[in-house]
Design goal:
With 888 residues, the protein is an alpha/beta fold. It is built from 33 helices and 34 strands. The strands form seven sheets. The chain has an eight-stranded mixed beta sheet. Strands 27-28-29-30-31-32-33-34 form an eight-stranded parallel barrel, surrounded by six helices. The protein has a six-stranded antiparallel beta sheet with strand order 2-1-3-8-6-7, sandwiched between helices. The radius of gyration is 32 Å and the shape is elongated.
Amino acid sequence: MNAKSNIQPKIDMADKLVYTFGDGAAEGKADMKNLLGGKGANLAEMCSLGLPVPPGFTITTEVCVAYYTSGKKLPASLAAQVEDALSHVERKAGAKFGDGVNPLLVSVRSGARASMPGMMDTVLNLGLNDVTVKALAKKTGNERFAYDSYRRFIQMYSDVVLELDHYHFEEMLEQKKLDRDVTLDTELNAEDLKDLVAQYKEKVQSELGKPFPESVHEQLWGAIMAVFNSWMNPRANTYRRLHDIPESWGTAVTVQSMVFGNQGDDCATGVAFTRNPSTGEKLYYGEFLVNAQGEDVVAGIRTPLPLADMPGVMPVVYKQLTGVFDKLEGHYRDMQDIEFTIQNNKLWMLQTRNGKRTAAAAVKIAVDMVKEKLIDKSAAILRIDPLSLDQLLHPTLDPKAQKTVLATGLPASPGAASGKVVFTAEDAESMALDHREKVILVRIETSPEDIHGMHAAQGILTARGGMTSHAAVVARGMGKPCVSGAGEIRIDYAARTLKCMGHTIKEGDIITINGSTGEVMLGEIPTVHPQLSADFETLMGWADEVRKLKVRANAETPADAQVARKFGAEGIGLCRTEHMFFDAERIIAMREMIVAGDVSGRKAALAKLLPMQRNDFIELFRIMKGLPVTIRLLDPPLHEFLPHTEEDIKQVAKAANVSVDTVRHRAHELKEQNPMLGHRGCRLGITYPEIYEMQAQAIFEAAASIMKEKKETIVPEIMIPLVMMPKELAILKTLVDQVAEDVQKKTGVAITYMVGTMIELPRAALRAGDIAPLAEFFSFGTNDLTQTTLGISRDDSASFIEIYKQRGIVEQDPFVSIDQSGVGELIQVAVERGRKVRSGLKIGICGEHGGDPASIAFCQKSGLDYVSCSPYRVPVARLAAAQAALKE
């Protein structure tokens, strides 16, 4: 347990480790989620609300933490507390654990404080053995049900606790159905199930060399230990990494009296949401299965019925259920994800939690709940994960495009994706990460073990499962398109093919899925830009009312600038002028300038680039309509522009009117051992001032042109990169001022402008008090500041940074979220020292961290004026800035 923890793992004998609930009373409550996990806390809360909850008890997360910190030993006082709690459950349920007449059966489930659907282990029907199964059959008068429960228990326990893979049992089950010539599990009779139980137990004996445990207490402790162990299984570790959940939190374990949805046609199990988790529409949404257990719905083993069909099947219970929906949503003031079971027409609530939802649904639900007066605007703003807005801002399928629909399944998670078909999670991860391929993961049904492949894939397609299957829930949480329950397709894992409508799709062929319609299509379908909803605009408006930080965009092309304005950017915080030189027409002139042997040669080449640069800036100024535009003068080392191929070398030689050997020689001269710490940034401006002169001239002439044309004030912000000494900035500021004076004389237009610098070296941060008198603004280039502070290359860190996270050396990738205690302290020092000598100093950041919510909160706390990020991250930054202001 390496990450920071606020839980003390040391446990005294007197500590309370187990909390009971049931029959309208509970020792816990909703705000004890850190101790009881989300499941345990919400079960306790539902009991207190008077809802029908089967009795049970929860072992706290502190036990899990102690278990790992003590070398996988359980606290000595736990056994007695569990026995007392079990007696409590027996009294409430009117049954006895392991009894040969009236046996109590229990479920054993995990429950972390943050929802981790399907990532950890569960055991149902625990307490069955050769004696209690007969008692259960006699008590219920339903032998088939008893042995169906027993075969399920043996399979689940063997998989989860004994670590015997479930495919052994699935093969025997499928063979039994073939032998009996039936399709559904429910078509097997009691004798079939008895035979399966015997086969299952024989398999355990032959594979493990020991019998399946008959002792119910051995079963219980085996399951409890398995749940704790599952906290550190690979899929749980992956899920925590993807969702930034600390491993130090641990999981609780909830033991609860079983209720049965598989006793007959007056029984059912289901999963429901109080609103549509895909669209946010205020309609009850979910699925149920008659004569089934919860695992059947979640695992996608059978395709369930929509909740809308329930009034025709169980009208009385449906009315009770919707009443519970309304009560829970009103109590928690959020959309609820609910699990329920109906046993002999009696409703039982097994779980409620704040439901996972798509970004579109989250925005709609938040805005609607403000209108319904369930929450206020601040709560609505704080409720949305800023990073989830990414889902709303990217293209969708072009409705006018021609398409060949192979199949239509359930629209389980919205959005569209195209990619190469792969059939295993391992292949999805390998192709996506190692080969940079876009893939669609195609499975008969997904399981929690597929989490890494689902994350790597562009989208997920399953042949089985409903809208609340594992694939659907996890995909929605990830913001990935998913089509589930596409029953028309036939997947052959051995042949690595997908067949449907006369088409055979092989691994590596491209398909497109539309998670908003459920369509599966042949080939790649074109996309169109999204249309943002009125609810989105409303929420963004509320965010803008409360945020203090301005939000700009990193943009240098007209297309990027237009996207930035569309998404609400308040200016450009970083225009990287070098990106303008890589155009095929311009790169020749740029290379000609580099290989020139003297100033006159360089100026001749730069004269070709001047009108191109000027037009670039004119376009940007037009689009931004008077909003601030920060333009960084040439920053990267010249080697990035050098010709490499023979054809490129010949073209440059011809353009510069020099020999091929001259070009080769010049390229060799410019080659550096460590170019990112070499001849770049302001060092170029010092040694080749004509470069910065040309760029400054282009900027000022563009500003003058727009001011004449539009009659609006343009205030360019010229940024000198990679300054380490005040003298560098002094020299280059003088150069810029001289160019500005020359352009104003030539054009007759008075231009207001600012000259500032990019703080991206530790020395610049520490000497900010010396630099600030010369700079009218600071912009922190946090990408390079992180590299130079930590001594880590951003391009090469991927090979080890994940290991550092796993070992608890760093909590976050420092190139994704600011290293607040190191890089962050340098930023704070620079802010303090810079403003001490220039009180009105404008300060922002323009590194990739400008779109990271945690980094934005840090910027708010540190007193910055703005953040700048990629155009598609602008809404993310606006919302994150509002949340930072509200939390402060």
